[in-house]
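Cross-check.
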Amino acid sequence: MLAEVLIFVPSIARFREDFLLSRLERAQIASLALLADDMLATELEAELLENAGVFNVVLRRDEVRQLMLSSPIPNPISETFDLRTSSAVSLIGDAMVRLWDRENQVIRVMGEPVRDAGLLIEITMETAPLRAAMIEYGVRILALSAVISVFTAVLLFIAVRMFLVKPIKGVVGYMQRYAAAPEDARGIITPNAGVTELREAEEALLQLQTELTHALKQRERLAQLGGAVAKVSHDLRNILTSAQLFTDRIETSEDPLVRRLAPKLVNSITRAVSLCEGTLAFGRAEEPAPTLGMVHLGQIVDDIAESELLAAGEAKVRILNTIPAPVVVRGDGEQLFRVIMNLVRNARQAIEATGKPGQVTISLREEDQAWWIEIADTGPGLPPKAKENLFTPFQGGVRKGGTGLGLAIAAELIRGHGGSVALKQTGPEGTIFEICLPRGDGAI
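Predicted model, tokenized:
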């Protein structure tokens, strides 16, 4: 529409100027006929004025202003227009006024004669024929513009279909085929768009599909391997359990050599059984989503402390709970018990391994957005290798014979609460693990 306005308005103004110039030229030709013969008949003079479409013609030659042709003027002259000094802005303004003014007026128009036939030519004329001609010309311009607009719209539609819609539909088709059968390589897109942005989108989709296909294949292999390992671990656990029963009888033997080697055999079989049970528990991946509610954290930690003190037996390990019983936090009581139990047990076993007295302290720090639970011990600290793969299954074990599944499972359970488990510090003076439990429900 803006283009239509920018084209239509100057065109109308130009047509009006040409129309007035043509009337001046006709009037000049009629006056030249009079100059050729001073004795024109009145009927011929009226015919010349009618053909020129004017009432009067004034021609200035040699500084003399002379009325060449004249006829009665029906109305007084309302306006005078000098085409010699009119600017483009004034021509456009006069054209718009004339186009919207329906009153038939008499106007005076002045201009320069063609071919230097004088100094000035001046005519008087009606505005009705001018306005009618302008309207007719405007309708033709609008009709032509409409045809051009329709043609342009068709070309634009075809161009959009070819260069945008068709490539986008191709991308959508590849996505649908890939979603239906990710294992089918024919669903992976081949970038061929000519538009730069679409080509970048196709290349990004290609990279995503390639990486996802690789990940799906790897996951399938790992699932198959995990199933095989679970079966082997299950059978091996049954075999080792039977062997563990036999070792109980071996320990009662009176043979000194058997009595000396039996404890080592029992420990080895016990560690093997624990490894199989841990592998099966991790491989099942059946941890339910936490049932969140307000639980008494102090009571949970009291139960853990009593259990670990019994497990410590004669070892000089102290379990200190500094969390008041009335304190409540948002979480799943059973899962929080397992997580804190795992961390406290690791700390106790680390202290027992040193053969020295020690202490495990469980404390709570409250903030506006979260609760922070700390499990601190006075043990020897974590070795560098354990810190590198602390929460990685089968790689983050700290004590000898450990599988590293405990911390991995603990981290997974806390992530289900929207929180995290982190190693705050470790060293010869002891180790501190920190659990973050968010207060909110995660809603925005």
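The two ends are 45 Å apart (CA to CA). The chain is about 55% helix and 20% strand. Passed to J.P. for a second look.
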